[in-house]
Write a structure and sequence with these properties.
With about 280 residues, the protein is α+β, with helices and mostly antiparallel strands. Helices cover about 30% and strands about 30% of the residues. Strand 1 and strand 2 form a beta hairpin. It has six helices and twelve strands. It has a three-stranded antiparallel sheet, covered by helices on one side. The chain has a three-stranded antiparallel sheet with strand order 5-4-6, covered by helices on one side. A three-stranded antiparallel sheet has the order 8-7-9, with helices on one face. The chain is elongated and about 65 Å long.
């Protein structure tokens, strides 16, 4: 049954995720997610796809934010970054090499489904372009990890070398001398949909939360504020932490109160005995 559910989830992910056919002529954000089921990272330059993943797949796709920005109008943006979907694990693979693309399509088409060009990059060093480093996850069913951060590259090599094998520079990202494109927060309705979906899952796991609600609004200067006597959590419309991270903290204030009518855990949430609250009804 668990394998069947996993296959269904991967099919849903496969149906939703597809690179945009049009390329922006201004710098765009490339968003990064961590897929807990595939144990790999997913990248997209589509705002619509980013929102769709956050709203429908947040149970296993955690939002990491902007990985880097791409200037598709740069003269250096001459090479397509090809995207593949691994039908076994649900992971995605990216390459800027025509030869590697053709090899995967020829030898591994039963495993990797070609999804087209994700966005434009540079295959060689160029003025105004930064390198993106590639790692092979030896424990992740053949998945890869990509980062444009030299500090993150060095950290992975130093601390996770047994898991991630460094493969060098994968491609170069044309950027602009200006500051990175600012992330425009999703519309309140988008964030609210993510929050409501997250809360629904928590209620299913912790019946003590039945009757709790969540809304976007004024959180009095905090990321969020929970009115535990009524079960209402208000998430700031200008929050900077992810919805998933915020609710993962706030739901324990409600559980704390509903457990015995007293707030006695303070900020120490979840408590050491958190597992004992699964399926528990007061």
């Amino acid at each position: 049954m668990r394998r069947a559910l996993r296959i269904v989830s991967l099919l849903v992910l496969c149906l939703f995720l597809a690179p945009s056919a049009a390329f922006a002529v201004t710098p765009v954000n490339v968003y990064r997610f961590y897929d807990a089921r595939a144990r790999s990272h997913f990248y997209t330059a589509s705002d619509a796809e980013m929102l769709q993943v956050r709203q429908t797949l947040s149970s296993f796709m955690s939002y990491d934010g902007v990985a880097y920005t791409v200037d598709s109008a740069s003269p250096a943006a001459t090479q397509g970054l090809y995207r593949f979907y691994d039908v076994r694990s649900g992971a995605h693979f990216y390459t800027a090499s025509d030869a590697e693309r053709d090899s995967v399509m020829t030898r591994l088409s039963s495993v990797y489904r070609y999804e087209g060009v994700a966005y434009m990059v540079s295959a060689a060093p160029a003025a105004g372009a930064v390198p993106v480093y590639r790692f092979y996850n030896v424990q992740g069913e053949g998945s890869h990890f990509y980062t444009a951060s030299a500090a993150e590259r060095d950290s992975v090599i130093a601390t996770l070398g047994s898991m991630f094998r460094y493969e060098g520079i994968a491609y170069y990202v044309p950027t602009t001398p200006q500051a990175p494109v600012s992330v425009v927060p999703p519309a309140a309705t988008g964030d609210l949909a993510v929050a409501q979906a997250d809360l629904a899952r928590y209620i299913q796991t912790y019946p003590l939360l039945q009757g709790c609600t969540v809304q976007m609004g004024d959180a009095r200067g905090y990321q969020a504020i929970t009115y535990f006597t009524t079960g209402l959590t208000v998430i700031s419309s200008s929050h900077t932490a992810s919805i998933d991270t915020i609710l993962a903290h706030e739901i324990w204030h409600d559980i704390d109160w509903r457990d015995n009518g007293v707030i006695d855990w303070g900020e120490n949430v979840p408590p050491a005995n958190a597992a004992s609250y699964v399926g528990r009804i007061r």
